[in-house]
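Lab meeting notes turned into a lecture example. A postdoc, R.K., suggested we walk through two folding results consecutively so the class can see how the record format repeats. The first protein's sequence and structure tokens come next.
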Amino acid sequence: MAGETISLPPMTLRVMLADDHALVRGGLRALLEAEPDIEVVGEADTAAGAVEMAGETQPDLVVLDVNLPDGSGVEACRQIRDKWDNIQVVMLTAFADEQAFVDAVAAGALGFVLKRTKASDLLSAVRKAAAGETLLDSELKDQIFSRAHAGRDSDPLLAELSPQERKILSRIADGKTNREIAAEMYLAQKTVKNYVSNLLRKLQMNNRAEAAAYAARLEALRESDE
């Protein structure tokens, strides 16, 4: 009928879980599937199984344990992102580990979710990651590169960025999308996209997650000097 508004069903977020502990997977599944807009489409308990299951189910997001019986979850993340760049990955870990974080973002993960994270924060992280937003857990953010004191006054990469690019880098570290950055800085989304591309090139980085980790390092060093 002309003029009639058609109500479309909400999009369902498809999530896959990979952890070698059945109790952890079961708890995550129960938590996620209690949400009307989230569906768990598969589970795996090994690194190889995670890659295979990701290919079979094509989820929007994989929640992937860092340590799996047959290998590294980080390497499984790299394989998943190399084969299917439409699938986002978040690493799941019991401990805030600086080196694992750096390795994971280099492999294409958007960040970490700690196993002790509150349910509401975990659900928020899952939704943000599925939308492509970088995650920086506050505990991990405080630790990233905090021990790197040598050479703190000389940062040739940062010196390459314009003041506007530095502002955008700071907002990337806060997990903001291009749309959010554009609204906050009164810029067009296309302009922000161009700035992001330029700053990634200048920083010699491949993705926003790497840039966010770099920005977190700078922030941690500044805080340690105060």
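The second example is placed directly after the first for contrast:
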Amino acid sequence: MKKIALIYGATGQDGSYLADFLLKKKYHVHAIKRKSSSLNTERIDHIYEKNTKNFFLHYGDITDPISVNEIIHSVNPDEIYNLAAQSHVAVSFKIPNYTAQVNALGALNILEAIKSSKKRNKIKYYQAGTSEMYGKVQENPQSENTPFYPRSPYGVAKLFAHWITINYREAYDLFACNGILFNHESPRRGETFVTRKITIGLCKIKLGIQKKLILGNLYAKRDWGHAKDYVEAQWLMMQQKKPEDFVIATGHTHTVKSFIIECAKQLNLKIIWKGKGIKTKGYDKNGKCIIECSKKYFRPSEVDFLLGNAKKARSKLKWKPNFNFSKLVKDMITNDYEKLKS
């Protein structure tokens, strides 16, 4: 009998890759989509094109407990993946209340629905956590035992979701686990995120359709992996006999500037760097400025360094990433260059 999975956030980067992954595993996949004036289903349109009979799309909203309760009780899933979020850290400073409604109380709504379900002891729940919960890091690298110190409304809201998941696991004996995922990117990453902003911007500069790329903190360090690898880790957590929390990371960190340099290398685009800090600028071979920094893109409170220790995941889940930093960048650059070229 096929397992039934319910994905909140299925139209996002992780949700779409997870849907692909679970369909290959022969699941019945139920996906939740918010009703809006635009379709916003481009990341899962290919699933419909394959005309699969195992994929079902429902309208719902994680901030509405009635909607959450009705969908969970009607679908009666074996596994629930909560990947829904207001996922942009910088934007969370502009709309903190909405960020809290989605990222914090959304998780609570799902857990409450599971608790009231007749199938509560059989449903497995995955909560998508984030390395942003570490924020002002207290130790390096960061593991499951590292103290949290979030530096944004996004990180704070995700920390509530993390702890409420643990609380419901312990209080009501639910199978509820947290994945503390470090930065993971892909060609499906939203275009407002720094990695896609870089890959698209540099491809446009290479093709002569954009003159300059303006960014924020070039010296922030992140542990970057590929979303394809990370959704497999999410599934592996749900296949364990007992629920546990896991850090998922590559164990390697790179600056934003290093990401730019790797992209330029893949594009055979020479960049000459001058200046330091906010005054750092990148010039092409003709001496034309093509990259510069602006305070506009700095956060009110910055997270300067993130580096994950995924030793537990490698040992217990037998998980390891297939993409290294160079392969990740190549996948993103190749995709964006071909799209823009055509």
